[in-house]
Amino acid sequence: MPELPEVQALSADLARRLDGRAIVAVQLAAFSALKTYDPPVQALEGTFVEGVTRHGKFLDITAGGLHLVLHLARAGWIRWRDEVPKLPPRPGGKSPLAARIVLDDDSGLDITEAGTKKSLAIYIVRDPADVPGIARLGPDPLSDDFTLETLADILDAAGRSQLKGVLRHQGTIAGIGNAYSDEILHAARMSPFKPANSLDDDALATLYAAIRDTLSDAVARSDGLAMSELKGEKKSNLAVHGQAGKKCPVCGDVVREVSFADSSLQYCATCQTGGKPLADRRMSKLLK
């Protein structure tokens, strides 16, 4: 799933490619991906792109005073085409193509989603706040407004909720997903199941630094990369996420995995839990 660093890099790459370009058409291949109907898709035709920005994990392409907002969800991506096919995409079928944006020189963007679980969302709105997911976003962890005090208030309000869940909840902190919450907690040397309100002042400062540093470093590594290079860059720099069974790059212990909510998490027991492996709670329930 693209998270804050990848979406930031995507927005920068798109801003360079789309600056001043005219949108000829937005062609839908998966009608279920379009979540709005007013303004209609046709309202973007003939408009010029004015900018590309990011709201958490949402991409926002501004054109003609309207906002084409994309949420790539778990398996969505954007692919650049130097030349788009002459015929529009055929709706339905097994193609991963959800929509195509055609530009004034016949280049364009393919918005795709792999797999069978379709969660990618496209919105055309007059104001980004009209997108419910954007309206509910918590503070951006790389903004100046995200201070140590802001994090302290968030954790205090979360009570006994587990740190992993607090970090990846978009209404609490915007832009952090499953991968970077694992990376942040590994950098902070904290258990993903640690209660949010149990951190003392030193631990709070450590977690705050881990959030800012982990995300800032990932953004810096991705800066200037084309969208086709971003997935590989992300995977090659993850310390624990997706690395189950491999050695922790810090201590050499094996990276372990347990289920968490609707997915799984990876961690290092030596670095994060005092050497004690976490119980896989989903498996424990199945054995009862």
Structural overview:
This protein is of the alpha+beta class. It has helices at residues 4-18, 132-135, 148-158, 163-168, 178-188, 201-222, 230-236, 269-272, 281-287; strands spanning 23-28, 49-55, 58-63, 66-71, 76-81, 97-103, 108-113, 121-125, 255-260, 263-268. Strands 1-6-7-5 form a four-stranded antiparallel sheet, with no helix packed on it. A four-stranded antiparallel sheet has the order 2-3-4-8, covered by helices on one side. A two-stranded antiparallel sheet has the order 9-10. Helix 1 packs parallel to helix 6 (201-222) and helix 5 packs across helix 6 (201-222). The model is unreliable at 284-288 (pLDDT under 50). It holds the Pfam family zf-FPG_IleRS. It catalyses: Hydrolysis of DNA containing ring-opened 7-methylguanine residues, releasing 2,6-diamino-4-hydroxy-5-(N-methyl)formamidopyrimidine. This is Fpg/Nei family DNA glycosylase.
